[in-house]
Write a structure and sequence with these properties.
mainly alpha, 4 helices
């Protein structure tokens, strides 16, 4: 089973590399991705440790950072709203 998963991951990696260099995307997209990743983590960190959201703690994990990366700052508001509505304070 592990061998099958490893094979699928290797094939996916090779196809991704093929697409990146075939379309002449270069490595500029990595800079943009890295900047979005860092800014998303900083935005969540600011909300957690400045007390802007009434003692609400949003964990720094791939799901929350990915949400903020895709949605931007409204994603932080979404996470705070979900935390207060579903889980409580």
């Amino acid at each position: 089973m592990k061998l099958i998963v490893l094979g699928v991951l290797c094939i996916s990696l090779l196809l991704l590399i093929f697409v990146v260099f075939r379309k002449k995307l270069g490595l500029g997209w990595l800079t943009v991705f890295g900047a979005h990743l860092a800014l998303s983590a900083v935005a969540i960190y600011v909300v957690n440790f400045t007390g802007l959201a009434a003692e609400t703690y949003i964990p720094l994990n791939p799901m929350t950072i990915g949400t903020v990366m895709v949605l931007g700052l409204p994603g932080v508001a979404l996470l705070v709203g979900l935390k207060l509505t579903i889980i409580g304070s």
